[in-house]
Amino acid sequence: KGGLARTLNNLGIMYEDQDDFAAAQAAYSRALGLCEETGHRLGQALLHNNMGVILVRQHEYQAALTNYEKTLAVCQQIGHLSGIVMAHNNLGEVYNAMGAYQQALEHLREAESLAADLGERERLLNTYKVFADVYVSVQDLPAASDYAHRALDLAQAMGIRLDEEEARERL
Fold first, then answer.
1. Nearest to 60 by CA among 106, 25, 23
2. What is the mean pLDDT of residues 36-40?
3. Coil, helix or strand for 58?
4. What's the confidence (pLDDT) of residue 11?
């Protein structure tokens, strides 16, 4: 069942890449059911995260929040620290999209602190980009610029050109 769940997850990713969100949701849901049957907690967390991603792309923010909150809860229960950072980042992005800026900043502060403690530079880079977006949303342009510069510096240090470009777009 574990192999089938992985295959369904991969199918979901392929459908998502083709913007076939209904098929992606169906594949993720089937994979989630298998992970629940077998007690594969990390798989459950990752599948809730993947479902959250496609829900955000469809602007279904409340449903995305529910999935990201499930991701966060499972990752906390199993001690998956990188997953906790990812969930806080995603929650920050959704709260920003919903205009709930204080909640967005709270989640991003959690993500930033834990990512820095873990040395998770790529997750920290993503957190900086989302911070910049939130600060643009609340029109705190000096803070937005600060986080965009942090993202750019980190992307350059890591040699990730796509992230460099995304950070520059935020300046």
1. 25
2. 96
3. coil
4. 96
